[in-house]
Request: fold
Amino acid sequence: RIDSNASGSYVFYDNEMDQHIAGRLYLESGMLRALHLNEFFLLYQPKIEIASGRIIAAEALIRWAHPTKGTISPLEFIPIAEETGLILQIDSWVLDTACAQARLWQDAGITPFRIAVNVSAREFSADLPDRITQALQAHEISAAWLELEITESMLMRNTESVIKIMGQITALGVSLSLDDFGTGYSSLSYLKRFPIETLKIDRSFIRGIPEDQDDCAIAGAIISMAKQLKHKVIAEGVENHQQLNFLKKVGCDEIQGYLFSHPVDADEFKQLLSRDFRVRFE
Ligand code: C2E
Ligand code: MG
Ligand code: MG
Ligand code: MG
Reply:
């Protein structure tokens, strides 16, 4: 099929593309309903401190329990939500739900730990500090419960206002970490301008360790430079002991990945908390 678009040039479609567009529209219209009908839910994946072998944080990861398609991955719907603007409401829901969960864990007598929430670049607007304050107050939890994972693309935009918003967030007592580090364009020296506590090395650099000499060199270099600049470092996507041993050797602080746990629901996470992971470090 050939359609003429508004500018008079021709656009070629094939069946696959039609299906792709139909699939998108389907997800797009479903997301608003999902928010109202509470079809989203959070899983939690532990972050483990290498030195102590203990869980020191949980990353909240969204899932969509779709009534007919089953569980949908955020990789499928977050990019669409970012384009349509619905991400603002979704990320607010995540922030609120994570704070509500923190309150439940605190009420259950669990020692506070950080819950890390992913924030889309689009979400990083001037009212974010206020929305964080509101979520913390609504559930009566301390800011120490909360960490935000942001991406490098955020550092590239409108820097002065981004620095100001980050300053307001960290002043509340919420910590910031830089997700998927190494995949964007920010240099470590550029990072000095931002109040970022932790760098999270992207999984793509962890995957090839220890065979891939380049991955080893990149991960090792990020860790040693980050430490000199007083950032903490976490590696994501750690799946085996060889990766763990390498990261331990080069001084990585924290670890997250299937080696310790997949993302799990709040009840399972509570059980993981009582476990000591030190044995797995040997
Ligand atoms: P991310 O923040 O970089 O999260 C890490 C992803 O890697 C998660 O995928 C996690 O399940 C997966 N993962 C963890 N350990 C391993 C491992 O050992 N091996 C492998 N192969 N994968 C591992 P997930 O949950 O599908 O999330 C994908 C992305 O979607 C996230 O990447 C994040 O960018 C985005 N996302 C998830 N939840 C939210 C949310 O609530 N809000 C926003 N804005 N984005 C979210
Ligand atoms: Mg993340
Ligand atoms: Mg990540
Ligand atoms: Mg990632």
About this structure: Residues 45, 61-62, 73-75, 78, 91, 94, 118, 120, 149, 179-180, 203, 236-239, 257-258, 263 surround C2E (ligand 1) (CB under 6 Å). The two ends are 61 Å apart (CA to CA).
